[in-house]
């Protein structure tokens, strides 16, 4: 039995994806997540899932960091990005960060179904012209390598850091001591090649959909 995971924070679009899956795979089991934290739990609970349909912009996931992290932690799980961002550069970055396909949200139900079947058959699915964009820059590729080396807990700490939380706030959210968070921070800085938390956030922002956007910069603590 085919098992698909859908990660998107818009209920209507999740419904559209469920409908597309039902038409081409009537017996498929579909599980859903509406944000990154729920997605991590879902992937752990469904280790044998056949495909993940991933939105790039939902709570806890802005850009390619979640894609990079999931591909590192669950390399056997195929991921197809389903996004409203349809620029060729975004599509190419998604593929170079490990997605096996890219489906624009403007696609009709027929195209959604064909794309899902193609990827399940081991093919790559991309709109025409997607790979005509320039390849990844060296800095973005280096940051992605660092993200892939992070443990799941270190990745969560980095995400919370990027949301503007201080160490004590991160410790409370994760239910750990502040000393544990500081230990994670030390490992994060080393793996990203950063000298402090501000630089780590700036480096991680290379994986945003719009890399020039200035991220939240928390106070040092």
Provide an overview of this structure.
The protein has 221 residues and is α/β, with parallel strands linked by helices. It has 2 domains: 130 residues, 3-Layer(aba) Sandwich (Rossmann fold); 70 residues, Arc Repressor Mutant, subunit A. The chain contains 10 helices and 7 strands. A 5-stranded parallel β-sheet has the order 2-1-3-6-7, sandwiched between helices. Helix 4 links the parallel strand 6 and strand 7. The longest helix has 15 residues. The mean pLDDT is 90.
Task: Give a brief outline of the structure.
The protein is an alpha/beta fold. It has ten helices and seven strands. The strands form two sheets. A five-stranded parallel beta sheet has the order 2-1-3-6-7, sandwiched between helices. A two-stranded antiparallel sheet has the order 4-5.
Number of domains as seen in the coordinates: 2
Query: How many distinct helices?
Result: 10
Mean pLDDT: 90
Structural class: alpha/beta
Net shape: globular
Q: CATH-wise, what's the superfamily of the largest domain?
A: Response regulator
Percent of residues in helices comes to 40-55%
Order of helices and strands: EHEHEEEHEHEHHHHHH
Number of strands: 7
Radius of gyration over all CA atoms, rounded:
18 Å
Query: Which residues form runs of ≥5 with pLDDT under 50?
Result: none
Give me the CATH fold name of the largest domain. Rossmann fold
CATH class of the largest domain: Alpha Beta
Cα distance spanning the termini:
50 Å
CATH architecture of the largest domain: 3-Layer(aba) Sandwich
Q: How much β-strand is present in the residues?
A: 5-15%
